[in-house]
Design a protein that fits this description.
Layout lengths: L1 H13 L8 E7 H11 L3 E7 L12 H9 L2 E4 L8 H8 L4 E4 L7 E2 L12 E2 L6 H18 L4 H27 L7 E4 L5 H7 L2 E3 L12 H14 L3 E3 L6 H11 L2 E2 L18 H16 L2
Parallel strand pairs: 1-2, 1-3, 3-4, 7-8, 7-9, 9-10
Antiparallel strand pairs: 5-6
Helix pairs in contact: 2-5, 3-4, 5-6, 6-10, 8-9
């Protein structure tokens, strides 16, 4: 009998948790939702507020979103001012869920313009574009999940370790691909300033007429500056992010002769049938798009 009970206990531990038993977690946008699923596995039920191909900069929460927070045990946000709407949503929801900001351990990229950016904070929130920072996100998510569900700590730690190994491989792949591009060709135009951490990590210069937020339009002066720089430095391609207004890239391309490269993913994943349904896939897709356009 004891042997039978022990076997049943082992079987129960191996089976996926039912939906009712899973830890309810709300992630603010699609990239974070993917990281939470990677670490949480079948022990979490993840709801993402800002879905694929959508812009967290301009998101406006609904009453249904407040109810999602009220039902959650953990809320996972980026921080660094990306989700300017999250403090109001937390208050209006009355949630008792713990709130973790995954970028809390990141050395924030300071913006050139004092007071620029989200809510007047002169910090760049797009820290996930550097894989080393994505690893910091995973550490924060792992610890927050373990605090919310201590019985599943071992599962979260094992999942995080596996995913961190995948991130190490991704980082090596990105560095290897850029090593084949001459430094003088590593100049990229994007419509908004979302790749600063990527550029610093991998030795690429990103230029953008629009700041880190898509909430405000690029000024005529900023667009003119970028156009002059493209002409002067003969930048070969302009990349449009999936969340950006295509008219800006089209204007820059028409006035400079630079071609518009494939759409890249900065602040959101694609849908499940798209080319970037996960963080790992997004980073590899962008890498291929960038390096193909700049290869000698």
């Amino acid at each position: 009998m004891r042997l039978l009970l022990a076997c049943l206990a082992c079987l129960a531990a191996a089976l996926p948790a039912s939906a009712a038993e899973r830890l309810p977690v709300v992630a603010t946008f699609s990239i974070l939702g993917d990281l939470v699923r990677a670490v949480g596995g079948d022990r979490v039920a993840v709801t993402t507020l800002v879905g694929p191909d959508s812009d967290a900069h301009v998101f406006s929460p609904s009453p249904a979103d407040a109810r999602r927070l009220a039902d959650a045990k953990l809320v996972v946000a980026n921080g660094l001012g990306l989700e300017g709407w999250i403090p109001r949503l937390v208050r209006s929801s009355g949630t008792t869920a713990a709130l973790v900001e995954t970028a809390r351990d990141v050395v924030a990229r300071r913006l050139d313009e004092p007071g620029a950016g989200h809510g007047g904070a002169a910090r760049d929130p797009h820290a996930w574009q550097d894989v080393a920072n994505a690893k910091r996100y995973v550490h924060s998510i792992r610890d927050a999940l373990a605090a919310a569900s201590p019985a599943d700590r071992a599962v979260f730690e094992a999942n995080a370790a596996t995913y961190l190994t995948a991130l190490d491989a991704l980082d090596t792949e990105i560095r290897g691909a850029w090593a084949g591009i001459p430094r003088e060709r590593r100049r990229i135009i994007t419509t908004h300033d979302a790749f600063g951490y990527y550029g610093a990590a991998y030795g690429v210069e990103f230029l953008a007429p629009q700041g880190v937020s898509t909430e405000t339009e690029a000024s005529a002066q900023d667009v003119a500056r970028i156009i002059r720089q493209i002409r002067r430095e003969k930048v070969p391609a302009v990349f449009l992010e999936t969340i950006a207004d295509p008219r800006l890239a089209e204007r820059i391309a028409s006035e400079t002769g630079a071609r518009i490269g494939p759409r890249v993913y900065s602040d959101a994943l694609s849908g499940p049938d798209g080319p970037a349904p996960t963080y790992l896939a997004m980073m590899r897709y962008n890498l291929r798009a960038f390096t193909a356009a700049l290869a000698p």
